[in-house]
Structures
1.
Amino acid sequence: MTGLFKRCVAWATDSPVTPSATAAARRQLWGILAAGAGGFAAGALFGRAWFGVAVAFGLLLVLQWNRLRRLHRWLARPAQPIPELGGLWDEVVREVHRADRANARHKDLISGLFARLQAAAGAMPDAMVVLSQYDLIEWSNTQAARLLGLDVRRDVGMRLVHLVRHPALSAYLDSGDYHEPLILKDLAGGYVVEVQIIPFGASQKLVIGRDITHLIRLEQMRSHFVADVSHELRTPLTVLRGFLETLQDKGVTMDDVQGNLALMQEQAERMQRLIDDLLALARLETTPARRHDELVDVRAMSQGLRDLAVALSGERHHRIEVEAEPGLLIGNREELRSAFTNLVHNALRHTPAEGRIIIRWSLAGDGGRFSVQDYGEGIAAHHIPYLTERFYRVDSGRSRATGGTGLGLSIVRQVLARHDARLVIDSTIGSGSTFTCVFPLSRIQAAAATTTTAT
């Protein structure tokens, strides 16, 4: 009998049988038997046994129907208190309640996971768009708004090709062959985007857009750089080749040889300077900037730069002055010397004979300033934004004649960037130019001394 009770309970609750469920089923069964026996006795007493049994079972069915109605009302509004139905019905209600709470927890878990996935996809640096079967937008992240011009909320349900109007994208979507990425140029904002499509699910697509604008620009810079270097090296190589051909002539005299050797030496030195500057610039651009802890006495370095400038001036007899305050600069000594030397060389090349050049080092409340001022021909305003670009020359012929490589100010810019500093250029046609290196206060350490002026 006990086994029958357990099988009935398991079938009714579709769950492992518990002692309470078994007891409830036993009570329900005894109730049914008691009602049937009572009805049978009453019917026998009045000569209608079957009628009494029918009445008893009818009353029992009404009771169960009332419990079922209360259960249905609670299921429709589960926020209400759990009804007390008695007997096996209470076990059923408890099982339903436990299943409902488990489903709610599972739903919250899935919702949280989906929200985290959306947040992670939204933080991706690439544009991401989910398309439905007919290439309708189901979801997109914030980068898709920046790179592809999509609106995260407004464009849901729209066709992607109607919003990103690019013939190549439409053909790419229709082709079904997504092994190779697609490059989209001339997009809004001037971006160049590499698009890759990944099919998933039954008929959905994930569109990933990667911003490669900077890579395209780097490739263009590389091409221009190679062309510029080739052009810069062609001239001295052409001169050297011409002199060598001349020296092979049997009619060349020793005087001609001596003159040609001097010119060949000059061109070889020019190529050497160019190669040295290229190597220095490449090192500055490719090696990571380290935090420097050297204390550089800029006033002493300025005096050394003046002595170098006087030696390089030669017969031109420039008037070179130093105005330096006490104060130490935190940085790489050799890199700073290279940058400052390039500024002094630049001033010497563009200042006429007997001209004046001033090397200054001063401190202010926001940091330090190293500047080189010349009184040369000056620079037109439209040239100034491009002066730190490689091989940019205001006057190409004059720069080459004075021995410039076109890389000096590029080196200065890279050195200053590694020292958290910047270059400020002020110039007036006919009055000269001032190149100022502005260092932040974090790079300055004060020192007690007096200002010096040397001429």
2.
Amino acid sequence: MIRFGIAGIPLTSKGRTYVESVEDAHLLGMNALEVQLLRVNVEERPAAEYSGLRPVDVDSSIIVDILRQDKNGNYKSAGIDTVIEEADIVQELFWNMARNYDELKEGGDLADELDVQLSMHAPYYMDMLSDQDIAVKSYNHLKWTLIIGRAMRAKRVVTHTGFYNGSKKDSLERSVKIYRAMSNECKPENGFPYIGVETSGKTEIFGTTAELIQLAKRVKSIEPILNFPHVHSITGGSLIEVSNFEALISEFSKYAKSDLYTEFAGVEYEDHNELKLDAIKHGTLKFETLAEALLNYESDMTIISSSPLLEHDAQYMNIIYLRALSRKFAKKGSGKKTVA
């Protein structure tokens, strides 16, 4: 099965909430939605007013961690699967798309009912390899996205890693340690989404195809995410022939968590760096060629439109794929011999 979806709220959506986005995606004929964790604010505050409650019971915010004093007086994470005590400190996340855990569950229930596969994208600016405080902030943003993703029953959380720090080899080693720690903290077997690490579209950012494959080999719960315009940009426009797409799909499929998760858009690039994403009709990256490559692909795939035209291009990609499929079946039918 090939699923088509979008990254973010549909452009034609009148509502701006997570639940409304799920419904609108379905009404637009899509069966996948990548929810984006944007415009969030996290505050730490005394937990006295929530004492005796669990985070899922709080209706005014999404509590993403409970900090509790140990015997030495140091505040440590107690997780969110516990009852809040009066002396605790809570980390509250305020998000414009959902107010509390009830709304996250509601959206997940609706997605199941409508057969809309959910994923999430962590904040786009991530710098987890840095030696500065931004690395801790980026790590926490990924953790919070995984917590929210679990509540809405998203299958995966997609993230960028950030800028190289030192050599590429050193950056890979650091990435392995970071993602291994996060995978141990937020294990898929405990209901958390898989961590999907996205290919990079810029030469100064970690995430070449080779790096992601090495990362997936060494951290088994990591899924490499195939962003076609990013790969096309960083390789100087390598995705031209059907065989180019087939080779790339074959490599990433080895590490996919059931369906192969991909993103597509038109793209402008220069000197092996992405300049901007564009409508799929523009540029040298052609969905028509990818559609031909998919005709012999026998596993499940999700294709997310990251085009500026979002749902328009998701629908258009679906049409192009169905046309290619129809031509394939027509050729098979015309090749059959008639029996007198």
3.
Amino acid sequence: MDLGTIVGLIAGFALIVISMITSGSPLATFADPGSVLMVIGGSFGAIMVANPLSRVLGIMKYIKKVTKVPNYGEEKIITTLVNFSEKARREGLLALEDDLEEVEQEFLRKGIQFVVDGTDPEIIKTMLFNELNQQQERHTAGIAIFSQWGSLAPAFGMIGTLAGLIGMLANLSDPDAIGSGMALALITTFYGSIFANLVLIPISKKLEDRDRDETLVNEIMIEGILSIQSGDNPRILESKLVSFLPPARREAVMAELTSE
């Protein structure tokens, strides 16, 4: 579980509630179910208009991505690729087929199978990068939903505010209702801003981060696959792949490779 996401949401909402309490106004002043319905329901309806239904129904899949910390196992992937390189130099590329069933990553398994089958290097490169591009397109679509939603929620908050102002102006004959009506009208904008800036926009940013991480892993695999196919020295391959990782994580890979 991604504690940063969970703790951030809880802390954000908690601090907002505390600030409401310390403002001196009763907490009930800030509660209005109609405003919540206007912001969340209205903006969600707009998202359904702007996107295919199948993509909208997949929103929970994207939310799960930001609440779980992915473990791509970059260190293990690099170790596997270096071991494959060493075996290919000793026994030939066809020998790698015996170990394909042990490879967990479908992307890596498919790439090594291309190499074993003797596919042209340029074709392998094109096919792998095409698959990577398709993956990024899918990720971009998910990011766009929350980015769009984040821009629409405040707009529906403003629509709710306008609706509240219209109701208030219709009752100008009652001076006592003007103050409470104005406060109620502004609550919808308040909700829209919170929903957009604490939930939707941060989720889109976290999804961008997940996309970068997964893209990096696939780039490591592509580099390793093409290097094995071209017969690069395993030590050179090791150096190239380790360079993709931050310095703090390189030592773990080097230690694992040395132990073998």
4.
Amino acid sequence: MKLKVFLLAIGCLIGTSGVYAQKGVDNGTPFGSGEDSVRCITNISLFTPYAKAANYKDAYEFWKIAYEECPAATKDIYLYGVRIVGWEIANEKDPAKRDALIDKLMGVYDQRVKYFGNDARYGKDWIVSRKVQDYFQLKGENADAKTMYNWTKEVVNEFGERTEALAVSYYMLASNLLLSSDENHKNDYIQDYLKASAILDAQLKAAKEANNEKDIETLQGLKSGLDNGFANSGAADCETLQNLYADKIEVNKENLPFLKETITLFRRMRCNEIEAYFAASGYAHALEPTSESARGLARQALKKKDYNTAMTFFEEAANMETESDVKADDYYMMALLSFEQNSYSRSRQYCMKSLEFTPNNGSPYILIGRMYAATANTIYDDPVLRKTVYFAAVDKFEKARQVDPSVAEEAGKLINTYRAHFPSTEDVFMHPDLEKGKSITIGGWIGERTIVR
């Protein structure tokens, strides 16, 4: 009797063990249950130290069991999984087998999305961006642009402004590659650019508000690559934009977000002389005046040579603008307009205003120097004293070269040109007050101190 009871107890124990032993992949738990949970934990503890030591060969079998049987157990399965499969790919010489391993690597990323895609810091968009990065690097010229595009488009649409910046960058890379092989993708490419650009702009603004220098540098680099890619894509020529947007602007003339987005696109692409840009600016300004819309109306007036209206709108744009470099451009445009109207003193004032916001821009200094040189004959009746005006002009060209390497060549040519107009030795002989090295004040509207050369 006792033997029968003992045998029954053993049977029940075996039966119970069978019921509760189940893999995590089957019952949806991180580790599974019963003996399978022990097996899962054991294999994780065995592959991890090997993987940390980059001994992927010995880690592989233990990792494979954990990856297949308890995929929700730990992110380490995927952190080291991409390294383990990457090691397999690096050591595979057969092209077909290598491609199969790349597919396997993509599967590792997909499985991480399935089980850890909701991670607050390294979620789906972060995972997919690394997936695309590895795919592109491993496939090289054989990478399928459509595949990359579909992967990244999904997360960009899902996460919007929260999308991992790297995913946004690869989204535009894929779209650019599609454009290079299919002209019909042009309109989609432009819309992709607008979407991606808006995302990075929002993230860059947030980084600046948080004073996060590391993120600012990264985002500015990605944004620059985005803009350069678009500018060089062939999709961004002004004629194309005019044809694409003319009718859309009329249909959306009361759609302020659309109008603002369109104006920004035209400005970035330097298509601010086309009728579509003017139309969008006018409609937007009527709905809600902004620096962008005012600037568009200013350029429209400028094209018509209505300088007074242009000045009014550039002034309005500058007053509303918050970006220092753009505000500086507005003031510089007013300086150029004043120069065109021979209002030199006012032009200089606007140049100096521009320099308040971009002190390392040499163009305002060059303009001031040109005005000094252009008015030399009006400052003095004495022909020798007139030549001293060129001292002040050259001072400005030298300052431009000093602060702004991008204008150094132009400034150098101007310096050489106007040095030739300095008073000669014979001139100075008749003007002992022009002793070399002496400080003098240039009269008239200039009113600046300079040094006799």
